[in-house]
Amino acid sequence: MRFCLLILLLGSLFVISDGRVAAQDTASQPPAMVVQPGDTWAALALRFSVDAAELQQLNSHMNRRREPTIGRAITLPPDANSRPGLLIRSGDGGLVQTAAANRLSPWTMAALNGLASPYRPSFHRPLYLPADDLIRDLPPGMTSLELSMMPAVTGQALGLRGTTRTEQPTITAQLDGLPIAFATTGNRFAGVVGTGAFYTGGEPELVMRVGDNPAWSQPWAFDEREWEYQELTLTGEAAQIDQQARDEERARLRELWTKITPAPLWDAAFQTPIADVLQVTANYGARRSYNGGPYLSYHEGVDFSAYGGTPVFAPAAGTVVLAEPLYVRGGAVIIDHGLGIYSGYYHLSAVHATAGQTVRPGDLLGEVGTTGLSTGNHLHWDLLSNGIWVDAAAWQAQDLACWLLAGLGAECSPAAATE
Ligand SMILES: [Zn+2]
Q: What would the 3-class secondary structure string for 154-198 be?
């Protein structure tokens, strides 16, 4: 018996459950956990049977007027023990109705919630109901919610996926006011949002709403990212850039990039669009100063230097929406991959795709060149999410393409081995 107890004790010390971080030294280190979506003050209070005010006091680094920040550590009371259950919002019906719906006596329900009587109004107070679930406070109508990165990083595409109570839900959501594009299949959903390399991060609010249910929000932590700094000297033709032509090109492309095809068109991980690369000469997000000026812009894609004529391939399935020479970008091909994801291939010496064409991974798009405002043979590859440039290398490294498809219950071929 004593042996069994010891195993139990060891298990409780070292097994990480419910997102809790095992404390190395339980005597001096209070237990902590990383906040997940749905870990609101109310949910944590019910899950650990503590007072929300006590939790907030223990975590004075968090703004108590907001919910706990997703992706940040939160300290729990020393004796915190997780219990399963369900959190019921008053919007889902009052205590008496909730008790009836769950075949409990109103008095049992009141006792479970520390109330003297079920007939005293307890406005806005979430109710505890025994169940086998992890107590979470998700957007009303949602039964699960996952985020691709916690904490998030600026300059990347971020994924959201989960399930809802009803089929084909309408999900509206914004991150710091940026709209999130969603696809749904049955009761599953997957969405993606991008923040640019100049995005300041911090702890922006993620606001979500399922159908006509009340809106829900929780802050989502962003980590700082180190960026490269590049000083460029432009001479000759490149220095005499026609600002108006540049702005017109950008405005025209912006119109293309912000059209959202509501379902993903890809069915596999994104491949690198070029095989014979000499070197990567510029990464996404590198801050740029021109002719000694301030760092007012950043590199919107990845530059692969390669010999002129090197073939450029489609990294994933989609529809070609532009295939023509442009002033700044030179020979250009842009692919719509669905769900607000677009990829672009620029400075091509030859374009072998046509607008409206459906492409499969590996289809030839064109050849490397140095057309447009370019100083040597290279492929500039960019990736956009909802009209915002994001890091294509990070999109590939995290295999966000397959992560999103898995959220919709769809098949996705993993990335083919390269080199
Ligand atoms: Zn470039």
A: CCCEEEEEEEECCCCCCEEEEECCEECEEEEECCEEEEEEECCCC
